[in-house]
Amino acid sequence: MFRIGQGFDIHRLADNRKFILGGIQIAYKKGLLGHSDADCLCHSIIDALLGALSLDDIGSHFPDSDIKYKDADSIVLLKKTYELIKQKGYIINNIDNTIFAQEPKMKPYIPLMKEKLAKIMEIEKNQISIKAKTMEEQDSIGQKLAVATQSIVLLKKCKAD
Q1: Which of the four pLDDT bands, split at 50, 70 and 90, describes residue 40?
Q2: 114 touches 125 (CB < 8 A)
Q3: How would DSSP label each residue in the chain?
Q4: How far apart are CA 88 and CA 122, in angstroms?
Q5: 53 with 5: CB under 8 angstroms?
Q6: Which of 67, 110, 141, 152 is most solvent-facing, going by the fewest CB within 10 Å?
Q7: Cα 61 from Cα 41, distance rounded (Å)
């Protein structure tokens, strides 16, 4: 049996924050603003994984009202989510991701993101796609005010619950 899920996340860019995406720190003059480290790529993957199995959303599992998630490493949250997916008897068949950012340029960082994310989710690098698009200077992303990501995951049942 296969299950598909999709996730989306957006975070504003802000001064005095680290820019972390896909578990990789990116050199940039601003960072993503959020309760955790605001890694919107990890967040959209988490929502896609949870959505595929109808397990609510990231806010249900890691609420921003809980102080223990203040400045949390989203890679750790992704690992916890993947463990839950495995407990339900599923493995990842593949993941397709799109990053929407006017700046910084993502291409140099994508191989590192793929490597880090594949390791966390126990998949091969060829099972994860990461693409980057600008917004042609339109909307909040194009005006360099925010970064967004979209993820689609296909899960495969590997064992009974």
Answers
A1: very high
A2: yes
A3: -EEEEEEEEEEEEETT--EEETTEEE--SSEE-SSS---HHHHHHHHHHHHHTT---HHHHS-TTSGGGTT--HHHHHHHHHHHHHHTTEEEEEEEEEEE-SSS--TTTHHHHHHHHHHHTT--GGGEEEEEE--TT-HHHHTTSEEEEEEEEEEEE-S--
A4: 16
A5: yes
A6: 67
A7: 17
Q: Quick one: which of 62, 48, 78 has its CA closest to 154? A: 48
The pLDDT-based confidence of 159 (bands split at 50, 70, 90) is confident
How is residue 88 written in tokens? 């339900």
Nearest residue to 132 via CA among 145, 141, 143? 141
CB burial of 111-120 (b: ≥16 within 10 Å; e: otherwise) equals eebbebbbeb
Cα dihedral 101, 107, 109, 110 sign: positive
Task: Give the whole-number percent of the chain exceeding pLDDT 90.
Answer: 96
- Token look-up 């495969």 returns 156
